[in-house]
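RECORD TYPE: inverse folding
INPUT: structure tokens
STRUCTURE:
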């Protein structure tokens, strides 16, 4: 029997912009194990922030029947009754948050800078990746053009109001390298599918978004608020469950990394 061991994987890079994010390492390992009968993939780690492959596995499988995945969670004393209790007590006195993670096997809450994973989970509709156009509904769009450095993505989000809720219907991304003109043309095609001829965006990318969208008969309006203002306005909507997100892993990961 062969084993692949992911040691302290809670501390691996989980930002998808990193050179070797944890999710990509996991994706690379799994195919190579298919040719080895009864192979095991084992992750051993103290918990850390509520993000990354360890948190994903815990959130999805812990305490649930599954014939493929077992998640085992236990504090240090349960795993090793011979440990010096005084050292653990001293650690809790010096840094309770770190000690709860290292010795108590609890994910840390003090590392979430913007929004909690639990709050995002409550507004994420599992399995929903797209909501198509529905006649009679009014849609709005926001585009975040690339800044011209060649390293930025261009993104598009389309949403609609339903009562007091904002429903995210579609999220698209064009990753570098890409043609700005080509991406704008594809963006316009999507906008027209939802009957949208006006899109809001920021001013970071200069004048080219205004010119390019105008060439396709779509008005590009500069947002009145900054991105920081927009995030600040989004937070209470998430916490009050007045939004519905798509089940879009990359988007959710970036939101939790703020």
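DESIGNED SEQUENCE:
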């Amino acid at each position: 029997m062969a084993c692949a061991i992911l040691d302290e994987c809670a501390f691996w890079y989980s930002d998808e912009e990193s050179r070797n994010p944890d999710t990509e390492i996991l994706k690379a390992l799994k195919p190579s194990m298919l040719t080895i009968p009864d192979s095991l993939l084992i992750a051993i780690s103290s918990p850390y922030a509520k993000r990354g492959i360890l948190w994903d596995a815990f959130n999805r499988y812990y305490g649930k029947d599954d014939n493929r995945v077992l998640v085992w969670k236990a504090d240090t004393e349960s795993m090793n009754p011979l440990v010096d209790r005084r050292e653990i007590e001293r650690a809790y006195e010096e840094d309770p948050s770190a000690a709860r993670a290292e010795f108590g096997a609890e994910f840390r809450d003090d590392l979430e800078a913007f929004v909690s994973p639990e709050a995002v989970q409550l507004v994420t509709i599992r399995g929903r990746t797209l909501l198509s156009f529905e006649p009679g509904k009014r849609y709005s769009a926001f585009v975040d053009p690339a800044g011209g450095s060649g390293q930025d993505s261009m993104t598009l989000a389309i949403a609609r109001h339903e009562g007091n809720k904002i429903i995210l219907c579609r999220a698209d991304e064009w990753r570098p390298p890409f043609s700005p003109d080509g991406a704008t043309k594809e963006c316009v095609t999507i906008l027209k599918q939802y009957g949208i001829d006006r899109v809001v965006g920021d001013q970071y990318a200069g004048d080219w978004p205004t010119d390019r969208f105008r060439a396709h008969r779509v008005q590009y309006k500069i947002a009145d608020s900054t991105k920081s203002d927009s995030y600040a306005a989004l937070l209470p909507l998430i916490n009050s469950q007045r939004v519905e997100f798509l089940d879009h892993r990359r988007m959710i990961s970036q939101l939790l990394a703020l």
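NOTES: Residues 207 and 220 are 10 Å apart (CA to CA).
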